[in-house]
Structure formats: C-alpha cells, structure tokens
Amino acid sequence: MDVIALSRLGGRHLVTLHLLLDSQSVTRTAERLCTTPSTVSKTLNQLRDLLGDQLLYRQGNQLLLTPFAERLGPTLHRLLSELNNLTSQGGFDPETWQGQLRFALRESSMVWPIGPILGQLMQEVPGLVPDVWNKDEQGLAALAAGKLDFVILPHDQSQPLPRQPGLVWETLREDKLVCLLRVNHPALDKPWDLDAYLSWRHIAIRDQELANPFFEQSLAQLQVRRQISATLPDFGSAAALLRQSDLILTAVEGWAEQVMSRDLVIRPVPFDYGAVTHSLVWYGPAGEEPARRWFRQRILQLARELG
C-alpha cells in the first residue's frame, strides 16, 4: 500500500471523479456538487496528475472516458458505497432524506407497475428526486458502473438473464401475456386460436440486453413463427401503431389493462408461453447502503400491495 500516494487522494477527489465518470460533464458535476466548473476542472487536473491518466478527453463538444476511466468506474462505485455506509450508521429517515434515485426502465413500465409505486414513494420521501432513464440508454451495465440505482424490466421467467457479476434480481410482481388488437380488427370476426394468431402480422419489441422471449422459443418448438412486420422500442409506441393497422401486439397484461380504451381489444395468447415477471435489479454491494436498502424494500412491498 502506497500510503503517501493515498494520502494525496482525498474524498473530494473521489466524489468528483465519480460524478465526472457518471455525467461526463464538468458543468453538470459542478451543479451536483454546488460548486463552480473551474473548481471541478482544477480537481480533474489534480486527479490526472495523481492517477497518471487523462481520464476524460474532449472530442468535439463531448467529454469521453479513457479506457482506464471505464475500468475504474465500477471499482470507484463500490469504494464510495462502502465509504457511504461508514458515514450512514444512523440509518435512513424518509422524511428528512434528500437526493436522487436513478432508475432505468421501459417507458411502458412507468404506466404499469412503476408509476403508482413511484408516486407513493414521492409522498413518503418528500426530498426524493427520481431520475428515470430509458433502459436502452442506460441498462444493466450501468448498475455496476454506479450510474443507476435500479433497473426494472419485464421478461419471461424462463428467459436466460444476462450474466453480469454482482447483479441481484428479485421478482417485483408476476404478470401474464395478452394480445392487443384494434377494436374493428378483422380477426375478431373469427375464432381466436393459434392459427388465427399466426395468420396476422405482428409487432415485435426491441430489447438489446435480453435474449429472445421465451414465447418465441415456444412457437419455434411448435415449428411455427410469427410474421414480424414492425419492430418498435416500446409497448407505448406499439399501441399507437396498433390503432392504425391490422397488426397484433403481444404484451404484458398489467400494462395492457392500463392503456385499454374503446379502440383496443384484449385477447388471450392462444398457446402455452410460460410465466412472465417484472424484476427489480440492483448491484449487490451498493444495494446495502441504507437509503438504497430502504427504497428497495419499500418498492417490493408496494408492488405486493398493488395486488
């Protein structure tokens, strides 16, 4: 252990570096630290000297991370989480706590089931400022890097999950799949079965981190496949297209019931597709920090109370 070198690297340096790696912006880091951009730039120059690396470099009007800074991110996140635990032994007080809680999820998950949960959390913790990202912008990799607190996503229970060290998955609530069609869809005039399901074109939902849905594998085992005519980023945009076409959307029931209107109809999925769940995912070592632990337990409890 190089005690002399460590003595030069203070907590202020570490926190500033963590925020810089997170935001890749001197200005936003200064705002979060309630200081000036020039002070942050001075600290960054000190870090470059202490660590012997550029850390961030400018390309056009963007700051990008060096390979060393990319590797440093998860280690720094774990270290600051441990240090925060040492200074938070008094526990967590919902009424006085102030800070951001950073989520990543599909936009449709804000409709169901996260919208009601988040609304209740904001009543119980007045100082809570949710910072919500689209899961395609910040996903599971951002958890270990310290850029997110939680990821929430629907998936098939039999679907292979990404193998990323340190991630903890817990069932938020179980759900099932349904089919959505526009109210005057021609398929509604005939019996609804597997042949009918397969005879029409479908909307697929893109996911860059999860494997193909298990229900697609179930169809493959039956030696049949859907005709995909559109691939969209989220259920919400898919529902908008449904209203203007003869496409079919296979989606989670909880969300479908929330967006039901006079121009959409729900039909059951006409084959065995397994079980569907919404999972709450966090990075294990950071999840034991008092505030994150309280929020995690409360989120899970509120999900159960939704029924």
TrEMBL record:
Gene3D superfamilies: Periplasmic binding protein-like II (3.40.190.10), Winged helix-like DNA-binding domain superfamily/Winged helix DNA-binding domain (1.10.10.10). The keyword Transcription regulation applies. Keywords: DNA-binding, Transcription, Transcription regulation. InterPro entries: LysR-type_TF, LysR_HTH_N, LysR_subst-bd, WH-like_DNA-bd_sf, WH_DNA-bd_sf, YidZ_PBP2. CDD domains: PBP2_Nitroaromatics_like. The keyword Transcription applies. Residues 12-66 form the HTH lysR-type domain. Belongs to the LysR transcriptional regulatory family. This is LysR family transcriptional regulator. It comes from Aeromonas piscicola.
